Amino acid sequence: MNWKELSTLEDLEGIIEKSSQKPVLIYKHSTRCSISSIIRSRLERSWEADPLDIEGYFLDLISYRKVSRAVEDQFQVQHQSPQILIIDLGKCIFHCSHVSIRHQAIKEVLHQVSVQKSN
Fold it and tell me: Which CATH superfamily is domain 4-118 in?
């Protein structure tokens, strides 16, 4: 996974715009949390084995608290860490946190989006 940094409110606006073309993933990560690091590592290893067609953004929520709050407000998803959100057409269509963050779950959501858009 080649993460792009989500560090500004302008980045967040760009994500919302990009999601009109295809889903975008946001990974909220706490650099102070060992669980966050473990989940990130597990997700990245899975991605190497089975790449998915989704752009991934990495939010260091310790360094960018204002952006983290804006993500929570924009998508009406209560903050947790670690946490992923999948954004499609400007809305959060899937989110989960902690050990629920799994490559397979992301893959299933992307498949559902693909099926819906092809109908």
Answer: Glutaredoxin (3.40.30.10)
